[in-house]
Design a protein that fits this description.
single chain, 282 residues, alpha+beta, Jelly Rolls, 7-stranded antiparallel β-sheet, 4-stranded antiparallel β-sheet, 42% helix, globular
Length: 282
């Protein structure tokens, strides 16, 4: 039996929030970048948050309110492919509640049954990505009034999609797993040599199925590791950078400027207790 969702409520200077988190069904775990996640924000005292790119495909269904990406209003249910640019996500005004699912790129490849190169840098309405079933899923989730009931509906939908979806190319699946296990600290040439294929072949197949090339994904995996560590110990920046495989402070600063749009110090100053980074003024 699936354990119930863990509910965490926070009241901080940034507003009141509720986060619901539940481990996915074992059949879905290999496809998930993180656990099932629900978010409810009330009386927010900020108007936007910063989203650096991460090596995951995002699927969001609004349950209340709306959001914008870099000033453009997003559909009420959408899926976003991998990107190389940071995004400032703005609240549409008032309270906001959503289910926020993050799939591994190859998990999304199976669920969506399409090459993720088509979604790179894009946010697509769920109905356009999944057909009428995407709209029906969003409607069902909005009818439920309990986080576990919502997660149950979502899991049944995803399991049905996985049962008939395509499997990734074995070489791509192996390279993606190797990148993540290494924390992003492995060169594309090494991956190709270990696979016994050309660098060109690996990069081409990987980019088609994942949405970005292995070098870009490796960079995002390494940066995601820094973000996770910063959330736990923001005062240990230099130590965290070294543990993540950065050569020096200049290397770390460059990735922060290009992937987050701010310096490491500014990023830490914008952290929201419980998760998130304030995007106001960016």
């Amino acid at each position: 039996m699936t354990a119930p969702a863990r509910i965490r409520r926070l009241d901080t200077e940034f507003g009141s929030s509720t986060r619901a988190v539940r481990a996915p069904d074992p059949r879905l775990r290999p496809l998930m970048y993180r656990d099932l996640y629900g978010f409810d924000l009330r009386r927010a005292r900020f108007s936007s948050w910063l989203e650096p790119p991460r090596p995951a495909v995002t699927l969001i269904i609004d349950l209340e309110g709306s959001i914008r990406a870099d000033g453009k209003r997003l559909p009420s249910a959408w899926v976003g492919g991998l990107d190389e640019r940071p995004t400032v996500v703005g609240l549409g005004g008032g309270d906001y509640m959503s289910i926020d699912i993050e799939l591994t790129p190859l998990g999304a490849y199976t669920v969506l049954a399409r090459p993720l190169a088509d979604l790179a840098g894009e946010c697509v309405a769920l109905e356009d990505a999944l057909g009428p079933g995407g709209r029906e899923l969003a409607d069902r989730l909005r009818e439920e009034r309990d986080w576990d009931a919502r997660f149950d509906v979502l899991e049944r939908f995803l399991i049905a999609r996985v049962a008939v979806g395509p499997a990734p190319t074995p070489a791509v699946a192996w390279a993606d797993r190797r990148l993540r296990e290494a924390g992003g600290n492995v060169r594309v040439g090494e991956l190709a040599a270990e696979l016994g294929c050309s660098r060109r072949y690996l990069t081409s197949r990987f980019s088609a199925e994942v949405g970005l090339g292995p070098k870009a994904v490796a960079r995002q995996v390494r940066f995601a590791g820094v973000r996770e560590r910063l959330a736990r110990a923001p005062e240990r920046l230099a130590e965290i950078a070294a543990a993540a495989g950065y050569y020096d402070q200049a290397h770390l600063n460059r990735d922060f400027r290009e992937l987050a749009g701010v310096t490491p110090t500014e990023f830490v100053a914008r952290l929201i207790p419980g998760g998130g980074v304030v995007g106001d003024g960016l």
